[in-house]
Amino acid sequence: MIFKLSQADTEKAKEVMAFLRSFGMTQCLKLFTEQWELLLKQQMETEVVEAKPEVQSPLASQADGIAPSQPLRVLSIKYRVVTSLGTEDDLWQPSGSNFLAPAFPAGAGVPFDAYEEVKRKDSVRLVPTKPYFKEPPPSNLPLDSFNLRVVFESGKTGFEEEKELVISVDSLVAGRYQMLQFLDSAAFSRTVRCMDLKEDREVCLKIIRNSKDFFDQSLDEIKLLKLINASGDADENCVVKMLDFFYFKEHMCIVTELLRDNLYRFSKFNREEETELYFTLPRLQATAKQVLTGLRFLHSLDLIHSDLKPENILIKSYSRCAVKIVDFGSSCFLTDNLSSYVQSRCYRAPEVILGCKYDSGIDIWSLGAILAELATGNVLFENTSLPQMLASIASVCKELPSNMLHEGRNTYHYVTKYGAFYECCENMGLVFHYPVPDTPIKELFGYDDPLYLDFVRSCLTLDHRKRPTAEELLKHPFMHHDYGSAYSEPPPLKKKVAEADGMGTEPQ
Questions:
Q1: Which residues, other chains included, contact 119 with Cβ-Cβ below 8 Å and sequence gap of 6+?
Q2: Same-domain pairing of 292 and 383
Q3: pTM of the full structure
Q4: How confident is the model at residue 18 (pLDDT cuts 50, 70, 90)?
Q5: Residue range of the domain that includes 447
Q6: Are 284 and 372 within one domain?
Q7: Are both 238 and 102 inside the same structural domain?
């Protein structure tokens, strides 16, 4: 029996994944994700689109003396991507010390209707290229250090009886922070709203999970937060302010100012309530300006955030539409040995996917995708797989330029000789993905205001060498046009489940 997956099924699956991720259930998340992707691929295999029967290029059928090629069979059209069965003859492999790669005169992202014609016109001229491979970090960087305060109970030694620090209302951490409410959980940490008894203010206590890897990662985050807070005013630069950090009962703890909901959760609640849409053009403008201010500051320190997404932008004030950038656990310096695996997939820049050299411009790409999502309520680039996502990117931003394809060390894993995107699926074999051009502007970006559209498209400049910086985007006309005030009372929302249930301790 074949089940047809609906949009509601997809939304439910995303909610389940978010739930598992938030509670650090990594094995369950991995298993669920694998099964969900298997379902998607099985549906693609059986879902032959009636509106798109087997197609053969007119040029191929009319050419004299040349046998027509086997027509491509369309399997599905979804997320602005056409998927068809593919043929191995269209793939290529690099060779030599320098790669020999197709010339890609039209870039990558050929529409389905044009693919066969491109194949017939293109003789696949191979040209030598030199893909980017990671460079080692400088060996002469200066040394630095900071002190870590260890808080312990006098007269007690040894390991704690519980591996994880128990979270319960009124418990006291380090003799200073009184727990008030459990806030959130992730694979890396848990967060709790606390009262700082010394300063008489509410704060956010981030408790790092008891793991050597997470401990090391938290040291990096503290190091970056210390640099960020010492280099400028956190409020003026729209970044979270670290107030304290210490080691307590086998856990690293980081204390920051207490902020409110993240943009993902607030936007979701706002749309579910079906009240007045919060993210109007004035508020999108205000949000973009503050995020760019934060990015300009970070980039001036040679830092890349590397994981900018709605979940990592927190609201400071609903009525003033004030936001701050948080979570520097994945951030890195330009002088680091830059990781090949950065950014959450929906907000991942094409240069990262292809394996090109990247810099702070990847944060700008993420911002463009975030603004479109806030305006529409939908992810701009779906991520069933990386090749499918590349086709989705091409449907919005046109063909990926040949210089990026030649620079990317992963290009041949995703791109055919003729500029389609491909992957091998367990149940279907080889499938090709093609962009669907000419999607209505409002469907993509939520508004058709020309300044707003130009701004978002500037953020989504495909060629990372030509993508504007945060400093340049702050001078964009969209940033200075008068759309009216972003100040107002937010639309009323129902209480969150956690608050309605009176939850004050971590869920089991």
A1: 69, 90, 418
A2: yes
A3: 0.83
A4: low
A5: 43-53+69-130+260-498
A6: yes
A7: no
| 304 and 445 share one domain | yes
- Tokens linked to 188: 């890396």
CA dist 324 and 293 (Å) reads 10
pLDDT at 430 over 60: yes
Q: If you average pLDDT over residues 191-202, what whole number do you get?
A: 98
Which amino acid is present at 123? S
- For the chain, helix (H) and strand (E) counts, in that order, are 16, 17
Contacts 24+ apart (CB under 8 A), 173-179: 173/205, 173/248, 173/253, 174/246, 174/248, 174/253, 175/151, 177/203, 177/205, 177/255, 179/205
Could you give the residue numbers annotated as active site?
A: 307
* Residue 28 placed within a domain: no
Instruction: Assess whether 239 and 280 both reside in one domain.
Output: no
Asked whether residue 303 falls in the same domain as residue 406, the answer is yes
Containing H/E element for 412?
helix 411-414
Q: What is the pLDDT of residues 139-148, one digit of tens each?
A: 888 899 999 9
pLDDT class of 12 with cuts at 50, 70, 90: confident
Q: Are 241 and 234 in contact (CB under 8 A)?
A: yes
Instruction: Determine, yes or no, domain membership for 203.
Output: yes
Q: Chain-wide mean pLDDT for the chain? A: 86
The average pLDDT across 162-185 equals 93
Domain closes at, from 212, 241, 258 = 258
Domain assignment of residue 17, yes or no? no
Share of the chain above pLDDT 90, in %: 64
Domain count, the chain: 2
Task: Quote the CA–CA distance of 354 and 342 in Å, as a whole number.
Answer: 12
Regarding whether 226 and 195 lie in a shared domain, the answer is: yes
Residue 200 lies in a domain: yes
**Tens digit of each residue's pLDDT (9 = 90 or more) over 465-489:** 999 999 999 999 999 999 999 887 6
3-state secondary structure 306-326: CCCCHHHEEEEECCCCEEEEC
Tokens representing 394? 């091409």
Copy the structure tokens of residue 108: 């990558």
Q: How far apart are CA 199 and CA 176, in angstroms?
A: 9
Alpha-carbon gap, residue 104 to 417, rounded angstroms: 8
